[in-house]
Amino acid sequence: MLCLNFIPLIVLLLGASLGNAFPSDALKKTCSLSKYWFLVPRELEALRKMQQQFDDIMQLSNRKCHTLLFHRRKSLETAELSVPDRLMLVEAELDFAITMLGFPAPARFAETRRRPLAFLTQAREDLQDCIHIEAPSHQPSRKLRHQLQKLEKARKTETTGCLEATAIFHLFQILNDLQCVAHRDQCT
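The structure corresponding to this sequence follows.
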């Protein structure tokens, strides 16, 4: 009877020692973007609310912005890029939007954009995991490099207000690109 009491203790000790033999970071992560196939309505509503509030602010400030940062010619549709290129493009777009939403704002607008900012940050982290798993040594194509250079040039030459407006007004285009990457389809 006394031997039976030692069995759970032995199993527990063996389990702990075997668990240490295989570190958790040695297990391969998987790339799953399926949660972005269909966006949660409350996230979409938070984004719409933020866009509407920003639009109201823009009308009051009467700022003009004419950047063509998210305007793509037919020769550079997201669907024409390879999957690793698309992952990198959407990551760059999300990074741009997160940076613009991270700038100081009036208290009311800062509160409105908190939820969209958290959602976009999580999406970027998920994309980064996928890039590291699926294409760790991928070199961007010429088309992707051109788009990334265009983004970098805009960051250096446009005003912060203009870039912020561009990011907020094009959030749904960025989300569409994210959904296309999640589906791995040829979205346009």
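The two ends are 70 Å apart (CA to CA).
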